[in-house]
Amino acid sequence: MSCKILKSLLGPTSKLFAWLQNRANPVRQQSERFLLVFETHGIRRTPISRLFPKNLQLLPFQLSDADELKNVFTQEHIN
Known about the structure:
The protein is mainly alpha-helical and 79 residues long. It has a domain at 25-79. It has helices at residues 2-23, 26-40, 66-69, 75-78. The N and C termini lie far apart (56 Å).
């Protein structure tokens, strides 16, 4: 019985920890800043990709949020 209680308490706690750890991910933070730079200058996310050469263009869903962008974000996008 106590094992079930322990699991029920640790389940949400471990999910919260994983979420916080993901938010602290440096690649995710860089992706967040990348999107924020464009938004600060009035550029919506959809046309961002058109500003890059063909080999660096991203799909719209990849620019939808920092979590998607972090999976495809490379140093060439920053340079």
